[in-house]
Every structure is written in C-alpha cells, then in structure tokens.
Amino acid sequence: MSEDQVTETAASSSKGRPAKKAEKAGFFARMALFVRQVIGELKKVVAPTRKELINYTLVVLVFVVIMMVIVTLLDLGFGTAVSWIFGGTAPSDR
Length: 94
Hints:
The chain is mainly α. The protein contains 3 helices and no strands. The longest helix is centred in the last third of the chain and has 37 residues, at 50-86. The radius of gyration is 32 Å and the shape is elongated. 0% of the residues are buried.
C-alpha cells in the first residue's frame, strides 16, 4: 500500500505545540502551588449532614462491636485448643 492511499489519523495530523523544557520551579513556588491545590481540593469537600453523620457513626460502632465479638471468640477458641493440645492448665495467680 502506498503512502498516498493511507489516511491520516487524528493523532498524526494534530500539530499541537512541541513539548518545551520547563524550568524547575523554586522551592517556595512549588510550596505555593501545593497550598493553592490543597485549598482548591478542600473547596470541593462536602460535609455530611447531621443525619448522615449519626448514621455513619452508628455503622462504625456496630462494625467494631461485631469485630470485637469475633476476635474474642477466636481468642477463647484458640486458647482453649492450645491448652487442650499441650495439656496445660489455665494461668493462676501465684
């Protein structure tokens, strides 16, 4: 296939501007840019309503209680199993 029969794609036809070598900004300029970007992102944050906040808090507390129960049961189960396997007795105050 000859070159004149090949259609030009959008990527190859775009002239665009050539990449120029950017100078590295100074320390304070980079810090100022960072602060501006942080402020811009913070403006996008939407605070939850009181109802949502209470709901989220309750969900987290219920999840934590469930996890505490699971870990406690596993701890008691493994402790009992190890005690049974090795024939030890429960620790006593001496």
